[in-house]
Design a protein that fits this description.
The protein is built from 17 helices and 19 strands. By secondary structure, the protein is α/β, with parallel strands linked by helices. It folds into three domains: 96 residues, Rossmann fold, CATH 3.40.50.720; 183 residues, Mur-like, catalytic domain (UDP-N-acetylmuramoyl-L-alanine:D-glutamate ligase), CATH 3.40.1190.10; 136 residues, Protein-Tyrosine Phosphatase, Chain A. It has a six-stranded parallel β-sheet with strand order 8-9-7-11-12-13, sandwiched between helices.
Length: 444
């Protein structure tokens, strides 16, 4: 049930082809596709600006692969003499070498595109600014009650290496970021069921404008056919207008619809559950089956995860939160005045004004850190009244956690919901979340 038309297919048989993987990545984003390409018999070169030491963890995962590693800078020949470039989504599209390769007629693709071209099962894609990871996982849990289900994309590892085990009757649920969706026009394939949870300003450092960010997201349904379905949030005014551009059928979900019994807290998780149910019922799942699966869903690591309790203070790890909108959602999961929130990190070029107002309304105290520290402090200070909430600045992550612990009393919450990416202090959000867990866990 894969939909859409192929605009530009990569070589189907990759055996003997010269393939350059552009961007191995400190997070290992290029590892899965590199290993898969080697198994297809391709002659693989990995090119990355970062050096071997910085990429050591990712390089170790390529042990046993016959691959040429060209690290510490790109070589023009790797781009111009290749039969195919496989470009990591994090690589800037404006790269002069990518432009030169295009001019030379070298085809370009991505890991997700390779998967979409070859996937035999029914694809469900999920995107959005907030909630896409949890919604993806929820859909996977629900569909797994009836079908063999594979979950991947921007969540978990590469599914390319699972292709040999996939069947036509399987379900494949993919979390798709704006970076991944940018390249979908290269193959002209969109998922059979496409879900958009919401749209908020994010990644403007990459996309430049909100319009460009939205255009990237719209690729999740741009190549659908008449028999395909686009699931949209009826409460998101910006999304409602997208229905006019959809080639297939529209299904709206109400984030405030009949509630499901959930373990995971917050109105936003009810919204995620409604989105998951809306997607699953397009594939023959009844509400009772969906409710049973959602009732058992325990959440994902680093997403509003209760990780410790000490002296009556609960410590909640929401390190996956990398947007101001996500941090607002996290704050709303707790009673006003009961939360000390730790925020700040890498600057993606978004505004913190709305987050500042939300912190002023709902937080007991805020501890700001990282590259965006002063922007956040300014936003909160402008919005607060009467000197509350308390505002603290931290020089580093450990200091931020220590300061938050000083403010929190029994019955209250210390919430790590940074609203920013982690790159200024950590390799990724998982590393940041694990550091939080280690700092707040009671000594043995």
């Amino acid at each position: 049930m894969n939909a859409g038309r192929h605009v530009h297919s990569s070589p189907r048989d990759l055996a003997g082809k010269r393939v350059t993987v552009v961007g191995l990545g400190r997070f290992g984003g290029g590892v899965g596709v590199t290993r898969w390409l080697c198994r297809q018999g391709a002659r693989v070169t990995v090119s990355d600006q970062a050096g071997a030491e910085e990429l050591a963890e990712s390089v170790d995962k390529l042990s046993g692969c016959d691959v040429a590693l060209h690290l510490g800078g790109h070589e023009e020949a790797d781009f111009l003499t290749a039969d195919l470039l496989v470009v990591n989504p994090a690589v800037a599209k404006g790269s002069p070498l990518l432009a030169a390769a295009e001019e030379a007629g070298v085809p370009r693709t991505s890991e997700i595109n390779l998967l979409l071209e070859r996937c035999p099962g029914t694809v469900v894609g999920v995107t959005g600014s907030v909630g896409k990871s949890t919604t993806t996982a929820m859909i996977g849990e629900v569909l797994a009650r009836r079908y063999i289900t594979h979950v991947g994309g921007n969540i978990g590892g590469s599914l390319l290496n699972d292709l040999t085990d996939m069947r036509a009757e399987d379900m494949v649920v993919l979390e798709l970021s704006s970076f991944q969706l940018e390249d979908v026009p290269l193959v002209g394939i969109s998922p059979h069921v496409a879900v958009v949870t919401n749209i908020q300003a994010n990644h403007l450092d990459r996309h430049g404008t909100m319009s460009a960010y939205a255009d990237a997201k719209k690729n999740i349904f741009a190549f659908q056919g008449r028999e395909d379905v686009l699931v949209l949030n009826s409460a998101d005014k910006a999304l409602i207008s997208w229905a006019a551009d959809a080639p297939g059928r529209i299904e709206m979900f109400d984030p405030g619809g009949e509630a499901f019994e959930l373990i995971v807290p917050g109105a936003h998780n009810q919204a995620n559950a409604q989105a998951a149910w809306a997607a699953a019922r397009q594939l023959g799942i009844d509400r009772e089956t969906a409710a049973e699966a959602l009732r058992a869903f325990t959440g994902l690591p680093h997403r509003l995860q209760l990780v410790a309790e000490r002296d009556g203070v609960r410590f909640v790890d929401d390190s996956k939160c990398t947007t101001p909108a996500g941090a607002i959602v996290a704050l709303e999961a707790f009673e006003p005045g009961q939360c000390v929130i730790i925020v700040g990190g890498y600057d993606k070029g978004v505004s913190f004004d709305e987050l500042g107002r939300a912190i002023a309304r709902r937080a007991k105290a805020v501890v700001a850190m990282g590259a965006t520290r002063e922007q956040i402090v300014s936003a909160v200070a402008t919005a607060r009244e009467g000197g509350l909430p308390e505002i603290a600045r931290a020089e580093d992550f450990a200091s931020a956690v220590s300061l938050a612990c000083e403010y929190a009393k029994g019955g209250e919450v210390v919430l790590l919901s940074p609203a920013c990416a982690s790159y200024d202090q950590f390799a990724n959000y998982e590393q940041r979340g694990q550091a939080f867990v280690e700092l707040v866990s009671p000594a043995e």
